């Protein structure tokens, strides 16, 4: 560490083992008293935990890590919240898991649990640790399975007797003999659920439902002043409980946040038709009296309503269509009446429905699909997008019945039209001339890349890589390419490196070439999401090398200047204005455009923090940009302004977003590819063979993410 700051080493990377050793010292004392979850430490709130429903409660905690600063290393501290299982009788937890909006399941009124309830319990309770209460001593066991049969049905021994009979003669009669048992150990020992107690301090690793997630976000959203006070409180407790170990290693930590200087970049003007300018204020701008830079017309389209007609009446859809036409006209679009409006069921075959929609309509441009509930969680969504984009080549736009019934306001309609215009090939806005002259003087291709991984409960599904690339002079229109990542089935390891980058990059370069009449990009700016610092050198070596090889594949000797940056959002660095009067909005966050490139950045490498969005609630999280390679020798200010400008080109809204548009699009593209995989895997569960890991063969998965030729030129993924 001293050698790094004395500039005595050629390699600016501090060995991982050194950082890990120091971080162990930082957490050693508190970890003996608190619940450890990864690198974070949690405790149950003294005033009582906040109940999230479903047998979960919210615990507060903090995370510490070591970060290199420009003159010295820093301890990075941030507050955390996460879900833990509520301690207590397991039967109470089961009652809460199987409850609904009306409340917990009334155990006394249940004769037996059905198969669907047992499946739900197995998803929630597997690997949960419990104490058994029927023995004279405390014994801890781990739930491997919840049995389908009840305690009165499960039999063992010779002569056979049920678990319920055994407990009645050996311990005491069971109150709920018709309830299941838990299976523990490798020898399939059965224990009735009513004699088990959930042990305190067990983190819930499974995905939360919408209501639970909403509650977590609500309680995690602390204003900067509140967050920093809590951080200081947590840090003082951490230092106090860790003092002997810190003293032993000669480590001194300040309990106050570091002060530093930041710059606020001016927001770029957003250009619309006839060079009309929109000036962002607090990260947002109005579209009043503005027309899209290049509007597309919606002349041949239809509406499929999968919602219950009682909840989404014809009059509501008629009003929605009228609003689309009215505001479309104001934005420069011509929106005709839909050629068809018809109702269907969400259980209908989407391929048949879309084929029928296209019948008799030679120039069908788009199908609007009305979904019930929260849209993307609809069971109709993934199969719809799969057949529309990988088989039929039909552009679709999903709308929730809630948006049509209750949120059919100008803001909602304009946001929908922004997506529609982009999907139809239009250009909503462009970047100002000042940015064009510095960076876009010659042809530039801006790229974004991301890899999405399956949840721990979906290890039979693959990781998916997506890369997007701009194909126009103003970096508004993008095309996308997907690939299934190879899996390490034995270790179930997540592979972050995009293995087929060379072929993907060539595909996108040729797309740019065709879209620009044979012109190749002079400069490539590549934003890579989802890479941890430990993978920087690996990503730089492999993916940058693959990108260069792809350029040579397009044409021997073709060597455009490449600037390669990583974008990190999952970090714990937060900023707040030193003077509260400088805060932005009700929360008091740093204003959009805030750049930090001193004090807490790397002593040798080129990195910076940029907060490009307006923080509505909680504390804004800046994006951390790390420049791994720069053939173009951009000045820091030029690259920062370009990055900030690209946060203003997001087609889905008239706001600056928290990360550059190509990164957002790459993220959307991976989610769309996941829809294709989900549609194939869910429909193949009973039909197709899979490998030993339960995953479909690679050839089927590769075929699943191949879009039709017509979709290759469209922004269908936004």
From TrEMBL:
Cross-referenced Gene3D superfamilies: 3.40.50.2300, paz domain, Ribonuclease H-like superfamily/Ribonuclease H
Matches recorded under SMART domains: DUF1785, Piwi
Gene Ontology terms describing biological process: piRNA processing
Entry-linked CDD domains: PAZ_argonaute_like (cd02846), Piwi_ago-like (cd04657)
Pfam families cross-referenced by the UniProt entry: ArgoL1, ArgoL2, ArgoMid, PAZ, Piwi
Stored InterPro entries: ArgoL1, ArgoL2, Argonaute_Mid_dom, PAZ_dom, PAZ_dom_sf, Piwi, Piwi_ago-like, RNaseH-like_sf
GO terms assigned for molecular function: RNA binding
Domain PAZ: 89-200
Piwi domain sequence ranges: 366-678
Protein name: Translation initiation factor 2c
Protein source organism: Amblyomma americanum (Lone star tick)
């Amino acid at each position: 560490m001293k050698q790094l700051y004395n500039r005595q080493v050629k390699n600016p990377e501090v060995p991982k083992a050194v950082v890990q050793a120091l971080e162990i010292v930082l957490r050693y004392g508190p970890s003996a008293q608190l619940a450890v979850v990864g690198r974070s430490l949690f405790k149950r709130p003294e005033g009582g935990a906040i109940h999230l429903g479903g047998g979960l409660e919210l615990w507060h905690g903090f995370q510490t890590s070591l970060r290199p600063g420009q003159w010295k290393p820093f301890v990075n501290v941030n507050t955390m919240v996460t879900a833990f299982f509520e301690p207590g009788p397991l039967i109470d937890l089961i009652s809460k898991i199987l409850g609904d909006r009306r409340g917990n399941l009334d155990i006394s009124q249940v004769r037996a649990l059905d198969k669907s309830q047992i499946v739900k319990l197995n998803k929630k309770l597997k690997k949960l640790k419990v104490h058994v209460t029927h023995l004279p001593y405390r014994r801890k066991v781990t739930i491997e399975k919840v049995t389908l049969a009840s305690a009165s049905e499960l039999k063992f021994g010779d002569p056979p007797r049920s678990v319920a009979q055994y407990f009645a003669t050996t311990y005491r009669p069971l109150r709920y003999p018709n309830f299941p048992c838990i299976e523990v150990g490798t020898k399939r020992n059965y224990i009735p659920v009513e004699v088990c107690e959930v042990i305190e301090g067990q983190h819930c690793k499974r995905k939360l439902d919408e209501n639970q997630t909403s509650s977590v976000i609500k309680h995690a959203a602390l204003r900067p002043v509140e967050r920093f006070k809590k951080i200081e409180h947590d840090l003082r407790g951490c230092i106090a409980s860790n003092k002997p170990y810190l003293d032993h290693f000669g480590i001194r930590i300040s309990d106050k946040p570091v002060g530093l200087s930041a710059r606020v970049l001016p927001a770029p003007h957003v250009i619309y038709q006839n060079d009309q300018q929109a000036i962002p204020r607090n990260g947002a701008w109005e579209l009043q009296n503005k027309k899209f830079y290049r509007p597309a017309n919606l002349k041949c389209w239809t509406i499929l309503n999968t919602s219950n007609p009682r909840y989404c009446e014809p009059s509501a859809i008629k009003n929605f269509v009228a609003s689309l036409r009215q505001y479309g006209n104001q934005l420069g679009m011509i929106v005709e009446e839909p050629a068809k409006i018809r109702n269907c069921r969400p259980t209908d075959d989407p391929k048949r429905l879309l084929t029928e929609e296209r019948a008799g309509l030679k120039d069908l441009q788009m199908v609007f699909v009305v979904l019930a509930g929260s849209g993307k969680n609809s069971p109709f969504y993934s199969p719809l997008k799969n057949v529309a984009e990988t088989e039929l080549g039909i552009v679709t736009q999903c709308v929730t019945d809630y948006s049509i019934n209750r949120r059919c306001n100008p803001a909602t309609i304009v946001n929908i039209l922004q997506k529609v215009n982009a999907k139809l090939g239009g250009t909503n806005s462009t970047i100002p001339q000042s940015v064009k002259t510095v960076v876009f003087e010659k042809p530039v291709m801006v790229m974004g890349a991301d890899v999405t991984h399956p949840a721990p409960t979906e290890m039979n599904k693959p990781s998916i890589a997506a890369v997007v690339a701009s194909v126009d002079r103003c970096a508004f229109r993008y095309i996308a390419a997907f690939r299934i990542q190879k899996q390490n089935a034995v270790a179930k390891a997540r592979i972050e490196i995009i293995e087929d980058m060379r072929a993907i990059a060539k595909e996108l370069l040729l797309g740019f070439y065709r879209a620009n009449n044979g012109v190749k990009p002079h400069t490539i700016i590549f934003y890579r999401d989802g890479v941890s610092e430990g993978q920087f050198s690996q990503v730089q070596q492999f993916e940058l090398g693959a990108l260069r090889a792809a350029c040579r594949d397009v044409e021997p000797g073709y060597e455009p200047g490449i600037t390669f940056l990583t974008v990190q959002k999952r970090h714990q660095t937060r900023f707040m204005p030193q003077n509260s009067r400088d805060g932005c909005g009700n929360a008091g966050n740093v204003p959009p455009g805030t750049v930090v490139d001193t004090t807490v950045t790397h002593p040798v490498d080129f990195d910076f923090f940029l907060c490009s969005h307006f923080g509505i609630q909680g504390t804004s999280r800046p994006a951390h940009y790390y420049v791994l390679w720069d053939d173009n020798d951009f000045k820091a200010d030029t690259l920062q302004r370009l990055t900030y400008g690209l946060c203003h080109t997001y087609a889905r809204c008239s706001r600056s977003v928290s990360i550059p548009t190509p990164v957002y699009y790459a993220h959307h593209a991976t989610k769309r590819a996941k829809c294709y995989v989900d549609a194939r895997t869910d429909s193949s569960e009973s039909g197709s063979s899979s490998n030993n890991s339960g995953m479909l063969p690679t050839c089927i998965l590769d075929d699943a993410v191949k879009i039709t030729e017509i979709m290759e030129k469209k922004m269908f993924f936004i």
